[in-house]
Specification:
It is a single chain. With about 280 residues, the protein is mainly α. The chain has a domain of about 170 residues. It contains twelve helices and no strands.
Length: about 280
């Protein structure tokens, strides 16, 4: 199945499809997903934004550790199909880890984010849009030859079940959610004693930052304002996160400081942003 589907996408490659699938592959990149999570956290009801952030950030370390543990070579490395090289400001397929094919990070990240969104909103049109976007992101990774079909299917299933797990927690054990989040963050630190690739430090720093700063963010969060006024949260929240990012640029080189920068960046985007929202009454 893996070889058959990859060969099919290899045969249909053309400029129009490259642009089409390039757009949906871009949606699975880090920046669009971070922007989506932050917009939900800043603009939606507190429990909705919190749940989406928890799902998205707990999915990241799971994907990273599975990639490192399985170490499956990408299709073009195994010479199953040739890589379709794309390298622009929005998407790059030319600078990827060669043995981190399973599971697909794009598929898992999009599936976890959109599954959490659809499970929370529970509207038919939202479910249809989320499923369609997730499917197209999965197909885009096959089109470019950077994942096997089993990689994207596994990524989708893991992302969906992470979202489903936290949905059950929020419905059945809401009071224990912080403890479970802290337990997950502590567990995510353990593999750092065995390997320290950049993506691991990033995902671990983000989830640990969320575990520490989320209770603070909820405590200082102001009441939800009217929607037009709430839009002012976007530049103010970006200012809070950007200030922390600029400070982190002054940190010395090293894995510990890289981990610290992601930890503090999460704090700025959550607790720091909510504090400014309260200060400006937005």
């Amino acid at each position: 199945m893996d070889a058959f589907l990859l060969e099919f996408f290899n045969r249909i490659r053309c400029d129009a499809l490259t642009v089409f699938f390039g757009f949906f592959s871009f949606l699975g990149e880090g920046i669009p997903l971070v922007v989506g999570v932050l917009l939900c956290f800043w603009l939606t009801k507190p429990q909705t934004g919190e749940r989406i952030a928890v799902v998205a950030l707990t999915s990241l370390p799971l994907n990273t550790w599975l990639k490192v543990a399985v170490a499956r070579p990408r299709p073009y490395v195994a010479e199953t199909v040739p890589l379709l090289p794309v390298d622009n400001a929005f998407l790059s397929t030319t600078d990827l880890g060669s043995h981190v094919s399973f599971p697909s990070g794009h598929s898992q990240s999009v599936a976890s984010f959109l599954s959490a969104l659809s499970l929370r909103i529970k509207r038919v049109w939202v479910w249809i849009v989320c499923m369609l976007v997730t499917l197209l992101v999965m197909l885009s990774r096959l089109y470019f030859g950077v994942h096997y079909p089993t990689d994207v299917i596994a990524g989708f299933l893991i992302g969906f079940f992470v979202a489903l797990f936290w949905t059950v927690v929020y419905q059945k054990a809401y009071g224990a959610r912080y403890y479970m989040l802290c337990a997950f963050a502590i567990a995510s630190l353990i593999p750092l004693f065995f390997t320290q690739p950049h993506d691991c430090l990033q995902s671990v720093g983000l989830i640990c930052g969320l575990a520490v700063f989320l209770p603070i963010a909820n405590r200082v969060a102001p009441p939800l304002s009217s929607f037009p006024k709430r839009l002012l949260r976007i530049p103010v929240g970006a200012l809070a996160a950007g200030a922390v990012f600029l400070v982190s640029l002054l940190f010395p080189e090293g894995d510990a400081f890289r981990l610290l920068s992601y930890f503090l960046l999460t704090g700025g985007a959550t607790a720091g942003a909510q504090a400014l929202f309260r200060l400006f009454r937005i």
